[in-house]
Amino acid sequence: MERVIFHVDANSAFLSWTAAYRVKILGEKEDLREIPSVVAGDKASRHSIILAKSVPAKKFGIQTGEPLFQALEKCPHLKVVPPDYHLYVQASRHFVALLRTFSPVVEQYSIDEAWVDMTGTQRLFGPPRTAAEILRRRVWEELGFTVNVGVSSNKLLSKIAGDFEKPDRVHTLFPEEIPEKFWPLEVRKLFLVGSATERKLQRIGIRTIGDLAAADPRLLRRHLGKPGETLWHFANGRGAESLTPVAPENKGYGNSVTTPRDVTTREEAHRVLLSLCETVAMRLRRDGKNGRCVAVHLRTADFGHFSHQAQMESATNGTQALYRAACQVFDEVWDTFTPLRQLGVQVTRLSDEPYQQFDLFSGLSPAQQEKRLRLDETIDALRDRYGEDIIRRAQFTGDAAGHMAGGLSRERRTGVTKPVPQEISI
Amino acid sequence: MASAVCPVDVICLCSADGTLRPLRLQLEDGQHNLRRVDIQEIVSVKPVQYVGIEAQIFLCRAFREGREQLFELRYLIRSHAWQLLRWIG
To answer: Disulfide: which of A2, A37, A152, B1 matches A158 by Cβ 3.0-4.6 Å?
Structure first.
């Protein structure tokens, strides 16, 4: 039986979810999707970037990921709305729940896109294209936003088909359609080809996906290494065939933060590291993991990047132990004068062991180390129940933000960047 | 931004089996006077979930301004808020 895979992608997800909420729930008459508008963070913040844009905003040359101030230069009357991550998580959960009514095998790729294995559903929903149209219409009618559906026989081709023409479209890209629909495309349209890879491919005369498909894989391997061969398979329409409905486990836990102003002193940097360790360690403990390797990532004010890592004596998820290791790594890598705009902490080499090997040379007795573990657990329980601000370390007293820094702003710590595990049945 | 949706106060019956039945609503008219409307009949109830916001839309019948009228009320499950969507006629 031929496989049928759908790739379903919400169009301008954050913007259309916000727009649908404002129109359908709040009853506003102005639809953000019909005017130049963007979803972006706080204008005053240094890291405010465009998270999503409307089709009219795109006509002004505004791109996702560009700084907000730059977008406002292109379109001064641009409507800027803040993100609402709780809404996005709700929308995403219901979106995936609706997909599960079509097939039990759904692999969520991100908050706004997923693959659905529709193999063997022809008697239920008709031929693939008809089923895709039904799905597209149901999402619009029941959830109030538009999606693109890419239909093919594997994940790779269905994703590429889903990106063809937007919004609110169904496209097919079966293997027999590859020469006509796939090969004429520019090579940067291929999955995993970014600007750097595109430049490398152009240097060896490869401009379209068809050029790449016809190239000698040994040549590609020589210029791009092993990924070159993978791209050659992709260009020939060979990608991941089956879906993995359960998200793979994290290989590491990390958070980073762009500070409101450049960090110039060691004490200040250690404070930021502590606030990062608070969130990273809490996530480790929540998932019952211990980590043995601590890495610190630094981005300088002129956007240079450094990172350094060290192994600890034993795997841990204690905030204090991680903080001590992170400070040690930081002190080894920082030159003490380069201003830093972003700091990150990552913990890898994870283990699931329910016990921890106490460090004989930490200067703490086993009883004291045990006490620290219990303290961490108690703090986690308090924060879970009463919010993050219920308890903070004394050195953060008077600090309005900052005692729990992380890659996700406070309102985003909702599972928004990962497939949402909680299931909803509809 | 002008809104077509009007938040309203509602007195409702919460049954033991979890069903809701709006009985009376209170809304402001154009002159900022409070008006009460007794709901005569719930014609239909439809669950909706626009953008993941779970809600129930009640099509109701009531006497208003001397005549029988149909209108739609929406109950937002998460925020426990009632909204008057529209008078149908």
So the answer is: A152
